[in-house]
Write a structure and sequence with these properties.
By secondary structure, this protein is α+β, with helices and mostly antiparallel strands. It contains five helices and five strands; from the N terminus they run βαβαβαββαα. The chain has a single domain, classed as 2-Layer Sandwich (TATA-Binding Protein), CATH 3.30.310.
Length: 128
């Protein structure tokens, strides 16, 4: 089993991010921040010729519930969705919450991870 879910898209990266952000708000998720690796590397003097943006996404109610259950779960938050270019093609990739939470011993968290993963995969499939 892979730790991520990835799909190819014909859309440009900025359009994908805009559409994902809108779809996420429909399911009560938000984008906490976006890391632009190309920009970050450039500021550090590192040439990275590809676009790679990482969205940190969160549902505040689910995050609170997870943290109430086990504060150490915060180390696995927020969920991340990457939108990137590889070999002149664009991709959307999700770090699967089920895989990340597989290290937790709490079955409630694993169930929550599956529910969140299903919703985020649907957002990605709707946008791709």
């Amino acid at each position: 089993m892979t730790f991520n879910y990835a799909v190819k898209t014909q859309k440009n990266i900025d359009d994908v991010i805009s559409e994902i952000t809108a779809k996420l708000s429909e399911i009560k998720f938000g984008v906490l921040g976006t890391l632009d690796f190309k920009e970050i590397f450039a500021k550090k003097g590192v040439d990275y010729p590809h676009q790679y943006k990482l969205l940190e996404v969160c549902n505040p109610q689910a995050a609170k519930q997870a943290l109430d259950s086990d504060p150490n779960v915060g180390l696995l938050l927020p969920c991340t969705i990457a939108v990137y270019e590889k070999n002149n093609e664009n991709f959307i990739s999700l770090a699967k919450p089920t895989e990340l939470l597989s290290v937790a011993s709490n079955p409630e968290l694993k169930s929550m991870g599956k529910e969140i993963e299903t919703k985020l995969i649907q957002v990605i499939d709707d946008v791709k």
